[in-house]
Amino acid sequence: MVSAHDVPSGKLISALAEQMKAVPSVQEPDWAKFVKTGSHAERPPISPDWWFARAASLLRKVYLHGPVGLSDLERVYGGTKALHYFPKHHRDAGGSSIRVILKQLEQAELVSKTSKGRVLTSKGRAMLDKTSNELFTALSKENKALERYA
What we know:
The protein has 150 residues and is mainly alpha-helical. The chain has one domain: Orthogonal Bundle (Arc Repressor Mutant, subunit A), CATH 1.10.10. Helix content is 46%, strand content 11%. It is built from five helices and four strands. The protein has helices spanning 9-20, 50-65, 70-76, 95-107, 122-142; strands at residues 79-83, 86-91, 111-113, 118-120. Helix 1 crosses helix 2, helix 1 (9-20) crosses helix 5 (122-142) and helix 2 (50-65) crosses helix 4.
C-alpha cells in the first residue's frame, strides 16, 4: 500500500489542494486575500488558492507528525526575518490562519482534536492514502522503474 511517505510532497499537496476545493467546510474567508502568513513575510501570498494549498499541507503534516499542536505548526510554517544589520532570526507563522484551517478540517471530519494535539481521522487518512495511491500510479506510468514498488 502506498502512503504519503512514498510520493513527492509537492505533487501530493497540489492534488490534495484540488480536492480541498470540493470540501464544503473548507472555504477561504474574506480576510485571507489581505493577510500575511506571519511577521517574517513581507507580503501576502501571491497564489489565489493559497488557502487550499495550506489546508492540504496541514493535512499532510498532521498525517506525518500527528498528534501536533498549534505551536508546533506555527514553528514549522514560520521563517527567518532580517533585523536591520543583525543576523536573521526565526519568527513563527501567524496562528490565525492555521487555527481557522484546522477548525475547518475538524468540521469536515478530516482531523480531530485530542488532549495531545490534533490527529487525522480515518476519513482523512483514507483521503490521503487514496490520493497518494492515485499519484503513485500516475508516476509509475511515467517512470517504469517505479512499477515494481506499486
